[in-house]
Write the structure tokens for this entry.
Amino acid sequence: MGKSRDLWVGADLGGTSMMAAVIDVKTGTVLGEAKRRTKRELGAVAVTQRLGKCVQRAIDKAGVKRKDVRGVGVGIPGPVDPAEGRVVRCVNLGITWDGYALQEALERLIDLKVTIDNDVNVGAVGEHRFGAGRGADDLVVMFVGTGIGGGLVLDGRLRTGFRYSAGEVGHMVLMDGGPLCGCGERGHAEALASRSAIERYIREARASESGPMAEGHGEDEASAQMPSGEILAAIEAGDDVVQAAVAQAQRYLGLMVANCVNIIDPEIVVIGGGVLEKMGDAYLEPVRSVARQHFINKDDMDRVRIITAELGDHSGVIGAAVLASQRLLKG
């Protein structure tokens, strides 16, 4: 039954939750998946144990045996050293992950070969192999959420850079001395084009208005957070403040895309994330317009496709499984 399949596990480890799935990398089919809370407060060792159990549960749900699975790929929300299997730093998970040898620890737990990489890198691999970027040699993938992450696929392969930090498009400087980014510096794309940026634009606009909505501004930013669905609902309801905030973020996203295209000249720019998934192609129309305005090469501009991601929550687990199949078979 399983002889014609090529089974790998992909895992996506986030600050809030984790997912593992058994993937047939020949077809991109998800055969079984498991999710559970990360519980980051437990620290790296305990979270790794939870991840190991999540991997095993995915294998059980897929109805296959562990010996049928060839290896595991894991996406981490931070910089990693895949050659050493080590997490460099992970703000979303806490300081116990700094320098943590995740690959070795997880291999001991599950008795399978493991490779790790940044979560957006594995998402880029997933979209390239089975999603919106399939068939392209060169593409840029970016995911717009609370922050902005990016990955590069060049000549059909993930390009990580010699320090494993290529593709960090969210930290492109778009406004010197601009608003504070989550990384501690100012004026980065993440601070100007992410969902967090949209929330900040809304807070600033509300604070400048008279009336009770301005009260308490700046006291509790968490209370001002707007999930992607709420942003979409406010746009559809004709909320001028939210519409203006989204338009501002779209403009900066367009500038970021233009910079990527001018440097790399990819066939495809794939953009995913919560707001994009809720609004779809309508969100990208203004982004395309701004980007094309700033292309240095304006010949055949439409040939550079700026499109929405296709795999949703599965981009990471599918990409991690594909990346594992590429790396671990070499060894």
Notes: The two ends are 26 Å apart (CA to CA). The chain has two domains: 7-124+314-328, 135-309.
